[in-house]
Structure formats: structure tokens, C-alpha cells
Amino acid sequence: MLTFLILAAVMVAGAIGVITLRQPIHAALALVGTLLTLAVTYITLEAHFLAAIQVIVYAGAIMVLFLFVIMLLNVERQRPTPRWTWFKPTATAIGLLGAVAIAFVLFTDRQPLPGADTISGVLQGGNAEQIGTVLFSDYLLAFHLVGVLLLTGIIGAVSLVQRATPADPARGAVTARHGGTQHDGDGQPEIVEREKVSA
Amino acid sequence: MVATEYYVALSAVLFGLGAVGFITRRSAILMFLSVELMLNAANLAMIAYARQWTTAGGSQALQGQGAVFIILAVAAAEVAVGLGILVAIFRNRASTDVDLLSEVRA
Predict the structure, then answer these.
(1) Out of B14, B37, B77, whose CB is closest to A153?
(2) What residue segments make up the domains of chain B, in order of their start?
(3) Nearest to B85 among A31, A73, A160 (CB)
């Protein structure tokens, strides 16, 4: 219960940070905190596979994408950060303290690794296997649709972000002359047209 | 073992916070973050119910976790396309403030 309360407190604090913090980077980092505590909560709910997926996909991939886009878009809105003179020594001290604590525990309280039999016994019929069974039996249609959806997402993202380079006038001229239908894929002609108009 | 009700209540709190953020935020990126929060709240509720169903000895115990897996994939696709749209909008407008995008309406 105590674990749950601590996790819930951190999670709600992160969520409040997401909806109140002014800098988008800070909001995104608060969401990363919420997602990581959610992963720990999944472990307490005996969903170990999904906890790992949560860390890898959400905190690892999706939030990195968010941070990339935020940094890409908000360059000019960035105010200069205040100079914190205490910041650097404090960070150094915390890092050193953590390293010393880990080394201390490592050398004073040695735990032998469990044998290979124990580990494979735990993994036998594990969470991932059961989820795989569910995905490939009950959710078979949804699983296939998700594959189609991800492919659509990839194509959509690429065609949205792609644009004709201004340094390549030959291609722009060709697409303009032919109405942009033959040479390029879908989405390309409109982007070329819009670029020319705005230029 | 913490009762399922607490997890569902926490999920409701997270979902509510995400909804409030979605309504109050102006920047499209921050609205996206709030949507992610709401999706994760739904995932938490689903996993909590999956554990409840498993301990109750349900026949299809892990369906909730399978659904969470699919929601994760959908969220990934949504973020990829959504952020692509945001970058495209930003190129034309130099802003992601949704209040300034009202002429997108048909």
C-alpha cells in the first residue's frame, strides 16, 4: 500500500506538471516521470512485459520524438536560462554520492545470482508468452490492423514532413510542367505547389 | 495487494488531469502530451482490471494486457503522424498555437 501511495503521489505530481509547466520541455520531462512511475506500477500489477514495453516504447521512443519536435520548433521562444552557480557543484556531488552508494552496496552486500534453472523456471510460461497467445488468438484481427496502421503512420509522417528542396529547381520545374502527377508520389505535388506560392 | 479500486481511482485522476490539460493548453504539442496522459490512464485501468480478472480466475485473463499492447501501438502511430502534422503547420505558420489555426475549418 505504501508503494502504491508513493507511486501515485509521484504520478499525480508529474501529471500536474504536464498540464501546468510553462516550458514544453519541462512538461514533456514531467510526462516522462509519470510514464516511468506507471511502468513501476505495472510491475506491481504483475504486468512485467508491459512494464518493459512502457519504458522502451513510451519513455524511450515516443517521448524522445516529442522532445525532438519541441526542440525543433521552439528554438526562438527559448528564454536564456538563469545562471545557477550552485547547480554544477550540486549535480557533481549528487552524481558522486550515487556512484559511491552503488559501489558501497556492491562491495558490502554481495548477492549471488540465481542459477540458470531458477531463471528459466521463472520465465517459463511467463507474462510475454501469455500476452502473445492472447494477441495471436483473441486479438488477431486487431493485431493485423495495428500493422496496417503503423505502416500508414510511417507513410503519412514521411509524406507530411517531406518537402522539395529549394536548391533543386529542376525537379520543381518538372513537377510544375507536368502538373506534378507523374513523377512523384502522393502528397508531393501539393507540397511543391505550396512551396512555390509561399516563395 | 492493493485493491483494484485504488488503481482505477488513480487512473481516473490521471485521465481527468489529462482532459483538463487538453482543454486548457494552447500549444498543440502540449495538447498532445495531455492526450498521451489520458491514453496511459486508460492503460492503467485496463491492466488493473486484467489483474483483478486473473485473480478471480477468469477464463480469458490477459485480454486487458493484450488491449494495452494494441493501444501502445496506436499511440505510437498517432504521435508519429501528429507530430508530422505539427511540423508541417509550424513550417507555414511559425506557431503551434491552435487558436490561430481556426481557418483550417472547412
Answers:
(1) B77
(2) 4-96
(3) A160
Sign of torsion, CA A145 A150 A155 A160?
Answer: positive
The answer to whether the pTM exceeds 0.95 is no
CATH topology of domain B4-96: Helix Hairpins (1.10.287)
Q: Whats the size of chain A, residue-wise?
A: 199
Neighbours of B104 (CB within 10 A): 8
Contacts A166 to B, Cβ<8 Å: none
Note whether B52 contacts A: Cβ–Cβ < 8 A.
no
Is the Cβ pair B33, A31 closer than 8 Å?
A: yes
Task: Determine the distance in angstroms separating the CA of A124 from the nearest CA of chain B, rounded to an integer.
Answer: 16
Is the minimum CB–CB distance between B6 and chain A shorter than 8 Å?
yes
Architecture of domain A1-76: Up-down Bundle (1.20)
Grid cell in block for residue A146: 495495428
SS (H, E, C) B67-100: HHHHHHHHHHHHHHHHHHHHHHHHHHHCCCEHHH
- Residue ranges of the domains in chain A? 1-76
**pLDDT tens readout for residues B35-94:** 999 999 999 999 998 888 887 776 666 788 889 999 999 998 998 888 888 888 888 777
ipTM over 0.85: yes
* Neighbour-count burial for A136-172, b at 16+ CB within 10 Å, e otherwise: eeebeebbeebeebeeebeebbebbbeebeeeeeeeb
Residue of A2, A22, A38, A56 for testing the chain B interface, max B β-carbons within 10 Å = A38
